[in-house]
């Protein structure tokens, strides 16, 4: 299979080493614990393993079998065939972190292009080479802000309409810090709370304010006043952004954000049950030395040829060790490549088109559902490709009945917001046809009567 | 210029992908929220294909040759893994689907948890962490949570041998611990006397890499673990080097309390030019309640006719969620495919041949390079990349010269405790012929260093670019492409 040694070769190798058997190489391992019998099923061939994995896969229902209106942080978008064709090039996916730039220019230039695309998409100056996902990128924003003020501004203020996973992960990373104070605002009435209501909570102890754009409920708010007020208190503003929405919408950079993070999965990465995804992180030039993770910079070789290298590595764990503020090593290189290819293929026009399709179809769905007796769509505020609808019966029951109609319904908000037991967060993308939307609307009418 | 950037290739008005026209009535987008400009490139599909194909040709990869990067376990990535991870039944599942629609994914995750437990000797496993470094973070967070749970608030120190991975000190510091280094003894083991002297009631734990970054299995591992346990500390095992131990010994049996796995090293999932990895964590039963959520459990046992029912649970004292959703699922599918193909005998064979290959390579180069710790190595070994009589030649020069022989260089300047270190890990998937050719190149380079040192100093000579000006990159800090409309 994957070990090429013949018996004769193994014998020659042992002789060269000067031992009699392979077992002799392990005499240092405590004898009582050496060569345990592993109680595992016997190995199988490639043909058999494929069949086994197909059996596991067949026990799932997928967004291809069902009609998907579920988003809440992961979105069903179309991925052009060329993305995966290029990702499957062994030259890309069987390489590692480009420590040796002379033989890694492919990866390095792709990351450099990724940094440019993300900076441009978010309206910021610089981007790093990626984080694990949107939630860990959000946590890194918190860590960066905390260290930016050397821990002297202990308060981090989160909007309650930031994706709950991002908030939970930020806490897993930061809640144990010395003197830290993490406050989440507007959790009781998230749908009645706007970002401007965070302003009164920002004070001289605040290092960072985190909001989402569009927020977890799909709503779009003007963040410029918040940004001004945050800055007037000397604090930083981080915006968790949806990259598809940025194909149409004003950038967080235009509002004055200091850090933009987000989940890059919508940029050509399969749903794949939640991973591997892509965290992006961009910021202003002045903070470039405080970013965690890898950065690629342009330079020249001795002959003056343009080339790329990992740069500012002195910030990183393998050099600064315990003085480093992040331990990130492996990132999501291949997923960043997927996003780079996706954005190159779609380009200026394609991304705009996708964003527009999402917007139009979502608003059509919202309008139709709002017309149903007993259903109320929260449309007080502009929204992008997700919206909240209050149902006449429990959201959980609505979803169970939708599933019987082969519809994967929206996210049950009660899972993250107790008290919103009748609310569903519905996502519509370019993948949903008008027929599917009409079918959803009809099914909703039907299930609420049953 | 080797290849223009996507922005330089861009041509205004060119389109790569078309999407269908809207099939719903038009809804106006509020003007005040519209962005004025979207500075993305405009390319055709073929432009994009050629660009990235050209870029890929500038990379060295496992598929193109030996990649003996110490501590990274750059083994062959079986192609079947790519096929299984892309099965539509996996790739098109949404992470928030109801559990009853996703029993295949949950069963696979449960089975992978069980396999990892058996391989490592731990009683509980989480698949959540995204990479080895995040697995370490989880481990250290568990150490902190465990001591706090026991009202043991004075434990502020994490001990880290100087032969540990670079992420270990960063992880401990991130979690608020004071890092106390522990030196190695002359045989490359943890120095027991030194360990004794720093172990006390303030010790939260020890982060042990075994085999360590010298490629050596600690000869006193049981004693090391006991010393830390005796003062009430926990022992974290860095599983980055697990490839040497598959079927050879189980870290849990050795008394290790917590360990992360690097699925992208030991279990052959591709490194992807820098990720994604996956860093599941195994723990002993007393720490199971502290694992991050979610964990997959069998909620109802199956019967002859009925499959078991799987679902997610949250451990009682969980340290929380460490990433969105439930782990790097696509990576988990690849690793499970690999483990299933091997079975217990195949797994042991992996470790045996990884160690055989490393020792064989060592036997071929030992007369030409100085060996700071002369012992049987495990899956990797470290030599000095310099010679007393040729003071101008450094490890970096040897690394760069190897490229001219069409090999990826070993890890250099790590571990820090070896002068001019070259850390070499061939892995089990390399043939004797490949190792012979690599050894020959190393021997030849040692010869060149004596007679023609400039060949090394100016290397590489045959790569797409020569040595790059890293100082300039850091000073000028150009991190984004030049845009056509820039001044």
Write the topology of this structure.
The complex is a heterodimer of chains A (450) and B (487).
Chain A: H1 7-17, H2 46-58, E1 67-68, H3 81-87, H4 90-93, H5 105-122, E2 126-127, H6 134-148, E3 155-159, H7 164-174, E4 181-185, E5 206-213, H8 224-232, E6 236-241, H9 252-255, E7 259-263, E8 279-283, E9 296-300, E10 306-310, H10 317-320, H11 333-370, E11 376-377, E12 386-390, H12 395-404, E13 407-408, E14 411-412, E15 423-427, H13 434-449
Parallel strand pairs in A: 1-13, 3-4, 3-5, 5-6, 6-7
Antiparallel strand pairs in A: 2-8, 7-8, 9-10, 11-12, 12-15, 14-15
Helix pairs in contact in A: 3-11, 5-11, 6-7, 11-13
Chain B: H1 6-9, H2 45-56, H3 79-85, H4 88-91, H5 103-120, E1 124-126, H6 132-149, E2 157-161, H7 167-174, E3 178-182, H8 192-198, E4 203-209, H9 221-230, E5 234-239, E6 258-261, H10 263-266, E7 281-283, E8 295-300, E9 309-313, H11 329-365, E10 381-384, H12 395-404, E11 411-412, E12 421-424, H13 432-451, H14 453-457, H15 470-476
Parallel strand pairs in B: 2-3, 2-4, 4-5, 5-6
Antiparallel strand pairs in B: 1-7, 6-7, 8-9, 10-12, 11-12
Helix pairs in contact in B: 3-11, 5-11, 6-7, 11-13
What is this structure, in a nutshell?
The complex is a heterodimer of chains A (450) and B (487). Chain A has 450 residues and is of the alpha/beta class. Chain A has helices at 7-17, 46-58, 81-87, 90-93, 105-122, 134-148, 164-174, 224-232, 252-255, 317-320, 333-370, 395-404, 434-449, and strands at 67-68, 126-127, 155-159, 181-185, 206-213, 236-241, 259-263, 279-283, 296-300, 306-310, 376-377, 386-390, 407-408, 411-412, 423-427.
